[in-house]
Specification:
With about 600 residues, this protein is mainly beta. It has one domain: Maltoporin, Chain A. Helices cover about 5% and strands about 55% of the residues. It has five helices and 37 strands. It has a 22-stranded antiparallel beta barrel. It has a five-stranded mixed β-sheet with strand order 1-6-7-4-5. Strand 33 and strand 34 form a beta hairpin. The longest helix is centred in the first third of the chain and has 11 residues. It is globular, with a radius of gyration of 23 Å. About 45% of the residues are buried. The N terminus is likely disordered.
Length: about 600
């Protein structure tokens, strides 16, 4: 971490020498259901399209890893299974939305979403809400929510990039947009010969993924709008694993294939002083593992929802969600849920209070009520203080309910329960925002795989600090700093939770002037507890610091050339113990737009 701290200090030293001249754009968080300014809530983070473009990162995981309190564990570069952890909570406790559609995998043992194939080319915005959000989104949102919004393309746009490891990625999109209607479609592809995922291996593990995205909106009359979107992703990745007879991590001929459809249709009607929305969303996923022990999984989810809102004052709604999965063992289960929720906000002088409540009625478990309360105080001089408390819950996954992969008799499982507390002190002016947040998260009845079956363990807890700064230093220069400290433990054993670094941080310097654009991003993590290469015992994964550089030059109004360098110092590192990440890599490309 020493090199990371020195680099961060060097970047921060630029701040006093530069005069801020460009106001920060006003941000609004929409994943809160009731649109909210970041200073009114705790644990909210946004990555906008400008930052996505400047950094040039090919996948969403590259962007998420620089948000304080968010860690990505990936079993090797180029398509290795990835997991999102927020504030030390296990990946199954992060709810992921793409255009409002829940995409967590009902057929996965933990029910978690694998973001390894989520390309950034068609993303418009990323929002992260840390801490229990069950009062907004129900089960699976104990650790937090990650919401991705895709682009509404206007005109023609295309890009092509190639470089190290015989890697090629491409994007093409077209669309038309007016105040009355819009329609757009895009495709994005990525392929690479890759590297060996196992750090003891020698063969290259390739990766291919393709995404198609289409959507539109139409205003039928004053106060009546329709919109919808459909997205398809197909991925094929070579994987390394624990092959017989030694069952040690190494090269294997195995590969994994997945196909996913997701989409929504929504009607918005203004009436009786309220904005009514009726929506239907669907997600369908098919996964196959091609190996000595082949397996296949199918999962689908539908959500039917109605909401009524009055500006930023309140929103109420009801929804019904059906989740089903067919597992490779032949077992299947339907885990449906109905819910009602409400969010309201009251302002009284310098104080703003936001409250949310929800009641879920899962098909297989007792109903559960959750709530969250946040109070924000304007202290004057640009300072704000926000305190919040919330509860959460998570029903067992379908795999856990039917005890898939179990070699011992199943036991009845209880839903997991959570409590979260936050305290945020922030300061902002037209050019700089900075905040320090302290949090505590307690999870009771956490479900773990122990002694060849799923059981509820006593409880886990995590506490920590998150610090961040976003500053427009000049018209051309923007600095983003982030740091997180986390102490996450299993209270039953008093041991640290797996794959949660105690310290992590990032520094990004974004530059744009005339035809030139560039970004340098430095990211670091301390050591962390991990699973050893035998797949069972514990070991320590060393910490690392890595840096990436991206740049672009606009030849004219329609054509730009791009260049990226990843892992500038050719640092050998691993996000998950035993799985390789690439060394120094370089890529060049071209972008065309009308």
């Amino acid at each position: 971490m020493r090199a990371f701290i020195l680099t961060t200090a060097a970047l921060a030293a630029l701040a006093p020498a530069a005069r801020a001249e460009t106001p920060l754009s006003e941000m609004v968080i929409t994943a809160t259901r009731l649109p909210s300014a970041p200073e009114l809530i705790t644990g909210a983070h946004v990555i906008d399209r400008a930052e996505i473009e400047a950094r040039g990162a090919p996948f969403a995981t590259d962007l998420l890893s620089t948000i304080p309190g968010v860690s990505i564990a990936r079993t090797g570069a180029f398509g290795g299974t990835a997991a999102i952890r927020i504030r030390g909570a296990t990946p199954d406790k992060t709810l992921v939305l793409i255009d409002g559609v829940p995409v967590d995998d009902p057929s996965d043992p933990n029910g978690a979403y694998d973001p390894s194939s989520l390309q950034s080319a068609d993303l418009e915005r990323i929002e992260v809400l840390s801490g229990p959000q069950s009062s907004l989104w129900g089960s699976e949102a104990i650790g937090g929510v990650v919401s991705f919004t895709t682009r509404e393309v206007e005109g023609l746009s295309a890009g092509l990039e190639g470089g190290s490891f015989d890697t090629v990625r491409a994007f093409a999109g077209a669309g038309v947009r007016t105040d009355v209607y819009a329609a757009s479609a895009s495709i994005a592809g990525f392929r690479s010969d890759g590297i060996s995922k196992a750090d003891t291996g020698t063969e290259k593990d390739g990766f291919k993924t393709f995404t198609a995205n289409a959507g539109g909106r139409l205003t039928l009359a004053d106060g009546v709008r329709l919109d919808g979107r459909l997205r398809y992703t197909h991925s094929n990745v070579d994987v390394d694993g624990f092959a017989p007879p030694t069952f040690a991590l190494g090269d294997t001929p195995d590969r994994a294939e997945s196909r996913a459809w997701q989409g929504f249709a929504r009607a918005t009607v203004e009436g009786l002083g309220l904005t009514h929305q009726i929506s239907i969303s669907a997600y369908d996923l098919h996964r196959r593992n091609i190996s000595s022990f082949p397996s296949a999984f199918d999962a689908d989810r539908q959500v039917y929802r109605w909401t009524a809102a009055r500006g930023e004052a309140f929103v109420v709604g009801v929804e019904h969600q059906r989740s089903a999965a067919d597992l490779s063992s032949g077992k299947s289960f339907d885990l449906s849920n109905s819910a009602a929720f409400a969010v309201g906000r009251v302002k009284a002088g310098p104080l703003t209070v936001t409250a949310s409540g929800r009641y879920d009625d899962p098909k297989a478990y007792k109903g559960k009520a959750t709530g969250r309360l946040a109070a924000a105080a304007d202290l004057g001089g640009g300072f704000t203080a926000v305190a919040s408390a919330g509860t959460g819950f998570k029903t067992p996954t379908i795999s856990q309910v039917v005890c898939d992969f179990c070699f011992a008799p199943a036991v009845p499982l209880r839903p997991e329960r959570a409590e979260g507390y936050d305290l945020r002190l922030g300061w902002a002016n037209d050019h700089v925002t900075t905040a320090l947040t302290a949090y505590r998260l307690l999870v009771r009845d956490q479900i773990s795989y122990v002694a060849s079956r799923y059981i509820n363990i006593a409880k886990t807890s995590s506490q920590g600090l998150e610090a961040e700064l976003d500053a427009h230093l000049t018209e051309a220069l923007r600095l983003k700093l982030a740091y997180a400290w986390s102490d996450a433990i299993d209270r039953a054993t008093n041991r640290s939770l797996l794959r949660v670094p105690d310290h992590s941080g990032s520094a990004a310097l974004l530059w744009s002037q005339g035809p030139w654009e560039g970004a340098v991003t430095v990211r670091g993590e301390s050591s962390q507890s991990d699973t050893a290469r035998d797949g069972f015992s514990r070991a320590v994964r060393p910490g690392f610091v890595t840096a990436d550089l991206a740049g672009a030059y606009a030849v004219n109004a329609h054509v730009s050339v791009t260049a990226r360098v990843e892992n500038l110092t050719d640092k050998r590192f691993e996000e998950v113990l035993g799985y390789n990440e690439p060394g120094l890599a370089a890529y060049v490309g071209i972008k065309i737009r009308n």
